[in-house]
Amino acid sequence: MTGGLKSESRLERALASGRFAVTGELGPPRNARAADVEAKCRALKGSVDAVNVTDNQTAVVRMSSLAASVIALREGLDPVMQMVCRDRNRIAAQSDLLGAAALGVNNIIALSGDHQRFGDHPQSKNVYDLDSVSLIMAIRAMRDQGRLLSGQELPEDGRPRLFIAAFNPFADPEGYRVVRAAKKVEAGADFLQSQCVYDMPRFRRFMERAVDMGLAEKAYFMAGITPLKSLGMAKYMNNNVPGITVPDSLIARLKGVPKDRQPEEGVAIACEQIEEMKSLAGVSGVHLMFVEWEHMIPVVVEKAGLLPRSEA
Amino acid sequence: MIIASRKPIDEIKGFIAGSGRILIVGCRGCVTVCNSGGAKEVEILASLLRLDAMKGGAKLTADECTLERQCDPEYVDGFAPRLAEGYGAVLSMACPIGPQYLAERFPSEKVYPALNACFMGGALAHGVWAERCQACGDCVVHLFAGLCPVSRCAKSLLNGPCGGSAEGKCEVSGETDCVWHLIVERMEAAGTIGELATPRPLKDWRTSRDGGPRKIVREELVR
Predict the structure, then answer these.
(1) Residue B96: inside a domain, yes or no?
(2) Do the domain assignments include residue B208?
(3) CB of B165 within 8 Å of any CB in chain A?
(4) Which residue ranges of chain A lie beneath pLDDT 50?
(5) Is B166 on the interface with A (CB under 8 A)?
(6) What is the pTM for the complete model shown?
(7) Which CATH number fits the domain that encloses residue B29?
(8) Which residue on chain A is closest to B160 by alpha carbon?
(9) How far is residue A134's CA from residue B201's CA, in Å, rounded to a whole number?
(10) CB 3.0-4.6 Å disulfide test: which of A28, A77, B158, B170 passes with A62?
(11) B166-184 pLDDT, tens per residue?
(12) Is pLDDT at B85 greater than 60 in this prediction?
């Protein structure tokens, strides 16, 4: 976070300027229609500094994150291309990184990836040649040392200038999560996007430790926000998603309004959370994961007073 | 040891369909220890198949024998006289190394695998076994409190747990311990958790199956 910028990323510029940054998330379609990606991009444009393009999330086959990222570029967005370790070995990973950078992708996020058991091809073989930490190390070596994992040198103007992200889940073992975040930062992550947060006291504890360890000076932390669309969703997230706890107070709030007004209440809760995040030490922005509810991102961004965002 | 389990009986019945005389060959190695292909299991399978043939009004001669080890040419060679009797099918109840050795040594015989090899592991309790090794060829369990993340993590992660770890269980199955949860617990208790803070260098998979089929030559033994 010192010295010049590492990439052409608009997101990096926004974060480096000290402005509270906003990223969104875009799931590519389960088909080859560019128009589906374009429609989601148009909904997000102007409301986010960058948009994560997911990589076959939940291990379901979708349009590749690289292709959808290029469509997002065409639409004037700054994509954060997801790359999971499940589907590619170090040869494919480095090749895709070179290709992505060549096509204008500026940001990359390295993830382990959901196990294929959850997806539409549970019969498949997985790769896991690398894990998220070693993938981050590989990306940094390409960018900063100008060499592939083989030692092969990259020409000065042929290095992928990528702004590198890591994902920060809150799953068990809870106490170890901040150590793992530190490991990702040491490996080379420039920014971290967290899993969605509902339990603010728990997130505060995490951030306090991260700040104490000096992590917030080495990398930007962006807090994950996903609005609770309904009471059912709140209960589902609380009971089924590792790392997520929805406090009783939020469940009670959703219970207190009629079903048709719950989405509105969920948006209100999300806006309040964003407000809290703005003043939380070490938090540099929010990552809005509105799964199949992307069109609500502009609404929340406006309500939360996060406009205007960076332009191309 | 290699932990194996018997194939579904219908699959085995398919192997021997049309054969009036079969030979079932057990092994006194790993599969005897894990109760899947020793003399006792050979006897059980033979009885099952005889009974099944009888129910269908057919006559089946199912001979039984158990070799010291089917993965050793010395014991497989000594087995030749048994095959002179002429069988329609030979069912190997060793791990799948056995049927390969039998088929190679006796190419005119129809040899079938009656077991599936499941994994390399050990017993947890009587009748319960679990995977403990993937033969990556570069053991690092000492770095992880004596636990193997290569074989026991569903993603073979070497730098800590993924986001799917929940209450000590793996995202892939609530029946499976998250090995990273165990590693963190043990290292916290031992006060060595700090060792996990440094990113692990990339693993060299050449010594694993990724380097192609493996072979060891011990010069001092080759004479």
Answers:
(1) yes
(2) no
(3) yes
(4) 2
(5) yes
(6) 0.95
(7) 3.40.50.2300
(8) A180
(9) 7
(10) A28
(11) 999 999 999 999 999 999 9
(12) yes
- One domain for residues B50 and B88: yes
Within-domain flag for B213: no
A176/B164 CB distance under 8 A:
no
Same structural domain, B140 and B167: yes
A164 CB neighbours in chain B (<8 A) are none
pLDDT in tens, B125-134: 999 999 999 9
Chain B environment of A242 (Cβ under 8 Å): 163-166, 171
pLDDT of residue B82: 85
Q: Which residues of B touch A126 (CB under 8 A)?
A: 155
Chain A residue with Cα closest to B199:
A183
B210 within domain boundaries: no
The residue of chain B nearest to residue A173, with distances taken between CA atoms, is B181
- Chain A's closest residue to B168, CA to CA, is A172
Question: DSSP per residue over chain B, as a string?
Answer: -EEEEEPPHHHHHHHHTT-SEEEEEEESSHHHHTTSSSHHHHHHHHHHHHHHHHHTT---EEEEEEES-TT-HHHHHTTHHHHTT--SEEEE-S-THHHHHHHHH-TTS-EEE-EEEEEEEEEEETTEEEEEE---SS--GGGGTT--HHHHSTT--SSS--TT-BTTEETTEEEEE-HHHHHHHHHHHHT-GGGGGSPPPPP-GGGSGGG-S-----TTT--
Provide the pLDDT for residue A312. 56
Print the domain residue range for B178: 134-197
Closest by CA to B154, choosing from A86, A309, A244, is: A86
Question: Which residues on A lie below 8 Å from B199 (Cβ)?
Answer: 133-134, 137, 183, 186-187
Q: Does residue A209 belong to the interface with chain B, where contact is any CB pair within 8 Å?
A: no
Which of B160, B164, B198 is closest, CB to CB, to A242? B164
Do B60 and B35 fall into the same domain? yes
- Are B36 and B74 members of one domain? yes
Q: Are residues B108 and B140 in the same domain?
A: no
Q: How many residues does chain A have?
A: 312
Are B193 and B103 found together in one domain? no
Identify which has the larger pLDDT, A293 or B40. B40
Q: Domain check: are B26 and B56 in the same one?
A: yes
Q: Assess B82–A contact: CB distance below 8 Å, yes or no.
A: no
Asked if B10 and B65 sit in the same domain, the reply is yes
CATH topology of domain A10-302: TIM Barrel (3.20.20)
Give chain B's domain count. 2
ipTM: 0.94
